Amino acid sequence: RLAVDHPFHTLYPLYALRNGEVGGAAARGSKAVHEVASGAMEHRADRDKVAAAKALLDTLARCPHMWRSPERAQLVADVGGVVAAYIELSNLPHSANTDSQPFPQALRRRLCVQSVPPVSLSLPVDPSCAYDPTSLPHAARWHEQIAFCGGINAPKVVKCWDAGGTCYKHLVKSGNDDLRQDAVMEQFFGLVNALLAHDRGACARGLCMVTYKVVPFNPTAGLVEWVQDTSAMADYLLGTNRNGGAHVRYARPGQTSFITACNTLRTAGMERDAVRALRATYDDICAKFPPVMRHYFLEGWRSPRAWAAARTTYVRSVAVTSVAGWAIGLGDRHAGNILLHNPTGAVVHIDLGVAFEQGRLLNTPELVPFRLTRDMVDGCGVAGVAGPLARCC
């Protein structure tokens, strides 16, 4: 009944379940998880769920009389074709030594289906179930090039436009990037937003999490909505090559570099009395490598009112994401997995594959509840953690 009444919210999860055995028992994609000493973190397909999803999809496809209209009855085949095309796209080989390659025309044509909205489009649930595929936006054309992001699996970036000119940017992942847990995390963050929306104090402060759509197609392929107007915190602080950024722009005389600090800390860890050497080296690095996150707001917002609003948004979003991440045991929170929403100053967390305290099982266990490093605190202003951050937590 859910598939018939709400096809755009139900068919993609059903296809992901049906494809649960595609690619074998895939290990979780994050590089951090591959460092886990125990081999108990592999995801195994539940064959009963795979069979049930396949049977349900077959029934929906064979019985058009169950649907409200012939157009909606065709959705099972149309969505299945889009899923198959995305899986094929995710498996396209990456051309060596290039940041982009042509998007095959045959694949682009298969992804232009009039009855299927762009996968990253978040449709509100309609209590009347009156979804009309012919009135919804759909991908009318695709960019002719596929771009590649950095990372072990080189995820692909593709763009499409609907008939009205609205652009939809997608990150298509493959290989060891199993997005099923990311999808669950985004559902949890949506629940957090729903709970905050019913709290008077949270509403008064505008507390919420920036969410984005994650659609897994099978254990080794999936799609992530591109979060527009964002940049990685690591890129702002250190530059894309980790030898620039704000830490270089605002460097003081005698300040050490990020790369030098990392190498020094790594060397200290090899000494006989590693714990004492690491602590002494860390204290020395802190003195020679001061935080600079406060400059992000001075650079981006020139008027005092806009600056104060952006920093307040940052502090409140740090509070919400920290507590929500702690509640769900979210790990792997390095600065590359935290985005800055440039129009507002809010933080956005991505790559949510290390959760439910899995970080404690890494070779170097993650023991902190959330990321609250010196640069994170520096962005909170002179009050640090004792001001709005503590009140919002």
From TrEMBL:
An example molecular function term from Gene Ontology annotations: protein serine/threonine kinase activity
Keyword Kinase: yes
GO BP terms in the entry: DNA damage response
Keyword Lipid metabolism attributed: no
Residue span(s) of domain PI3K/PI4K catalytic: 142-393
Top-level taxon of the source organism: Eukaryota
Keywords: Kinase, Transferase
PANTHER family reported for this sequence: SERINE/THREONINE-PROTEIN KINASE ATM, SERINE_THREONINE-PROTEIN KINASE ATM
Protein name: PI3K/PI4K catalytic domain-containing protein
